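WARN no homologs supplied; continuing
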Amino acid sequence: MASADEVKAIADAKVLMVGAGGIGCELLKTLALTGFKDVHVIDMDTIEVSNLNRQFLFRKCHVGQSKASQVAREAVLKFRPDMKIAAHHANVKDPEFGVDFFKQFNVVLNGLDNLDARRHVNRLCLAAGVPLVESGTTGYLGQVTVHVKGETECYECQTKPAPKTYPVCTITSTPSKFVHCIVWAKELLFAKLFGDRSQANDLNAQSNDSGGSTKDDADVFDVHEDEIYEDYGRRIFDHVFGYNIETALRNPETWKKRGAPTPKYIKDILPLAENEENGISNNSSIEEREQSLSAMASLGLKNPQDIWNIVDNARIFLKTLQIFFERRKQEMGSLTFDKDDQLAVEFVTAAANIRASSFGIQMHSLFEAKGIAGNIVHAIATTNAIIAGLIVLETTKLLRNDSKNYRMTYCLQHPSRKMLLMPVEPFEPNRSCYVCSRTPVSLEVNTQQAKLKDIIEKAVKAKLGVNSPLIMHGSTLLFESGDDIEEDVAAHYAQNLEKTLAEFPVPITNGVILTVEDYQQEFLCSINIKHRDDFDEESDGIVLSGEVPTVASGSDDHADESGEKLPIATTEAGDGSDDVEIITADSLVTSGTKRKLGVDITCNDDNSGNTKQNTTLTTNTVAIAGGKRKLDDNENDVILIDEDPGNRKKTRLE
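OK structure emitted
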């Protein structure tokens, strides 16, 4: 039973909740029932049909409406009318949600599904001095972590892998990356056409003007009596690339801050007369007929590293359908995608490229598309509910300043010592963290070849998580971003972006220190440039190292208080609002310094296509004769910079 002081602290608290998806729905409900009275909610998404199986505040009639500003708020007010809920249908990275905005809250609760936004919120919380409760789920696994400036590690004290998880609403309605198109083609369209039709499928787009698609889904994908493959293929093409996209365009809220897609119809790309040339000659040799099991070979497309144009993609799409229905008919209804099935890869590549073209996304080669393959982890509503409850427990501790009882709690799939919830004491701040400790980082790059735009896109934005960078060399301003920059200055910066580092009037070469700032995040970081001539293909000519924690070797693990390893979800696994998550072996390795928590997750596919996860969580201690020894912080290399970048005067490069 809560004391009177605890009840008052809860009632007086002002809480910011970021994300109103899988975890967010459960969290808002739990906050309301616990007694919180003043909550702000930020979410930029609209409701999709795929959300309805676990985001219980939403109904089918809400499809297309704002999650935060309309539905979630109104649903909670029905059973807590005295509660004050301020809902914002917006991006948390918008300028209006700056440090001053964050300072008004007692605590910030994250229910996000992407690394970029999580980093941004972490930095704003540090700048505002507001505690952050972070969370994530993957299937049965989940975790809640507490981050208090100066007391515990911040969210970025541990290196986070590039996100490899994607919400189904993004895949079906608002793709922004080619991988979204691959997932749509592989897990939705391929499964619908060639797999078990009885399984639920979120292939069709939904609009909010009629509660859904007006066309009968079963009729569309069924082969009509006496229908030839060509007519069937063209009809399917028009439905998924034309009609479905037109349906999605009926949700105007969705496209206010996104580029609207363009419907594609086969008659505009491949007229019927031209498509008739795609057939295989009756005079083909035995070898050619064997090759006809490949659509590429049938159409004379030989190089898998070529990027097909929209016409070739349409021809491949129709040809693969023909071959599946004519030569592999006995497999229809039971097929699942196999990356070693050439015809399946050709179909998925073509379908993904056509969809990418509709949404203004760059198309890829078959070779590249084949490499973008992963395994599926379905979101589970009960995991979201457990994690939401744990978030509220930690929030009440923060409001009482009960720092001795802060816990990072991990939800396990299988009991460990008869426990499914494993609490761990928070770790102290990482003295080598470039975010909360502002320790410099090292950047290895070929200064004769790398351009400033490469450094900004591949290192500053992609790896350091800076949204609006300002780049300085000494007191010289090389680049800044923003809407209020004068036209001539913006043109000058555009010229700088195309220069190699060595081409600047004061060359940026080995040993030079660059300063990176982001005023909105109040983020400041020094980058020590190190020249390097050669790189392997995977590094992409950029290696960020030094104080950025490197991939753990397996010895730097997290454990509970007894030293036992704990399995956990990856912190980028999503917020429970994801119906489909793409997970690759590379993305499942999180790292840390020897003092910090690191995750070692390996993913092995067995012959059945199922995924086996071997997950370990360890800490910065090692067992010695029944006791524990903390690993020395000084085992981490540190670059010392004498110059204080904060004291520099900023001038533009002339």
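Residues 210-214, 278-287, 547-568, 570-654 have pLDDT under 50 and may be disordered.
OK
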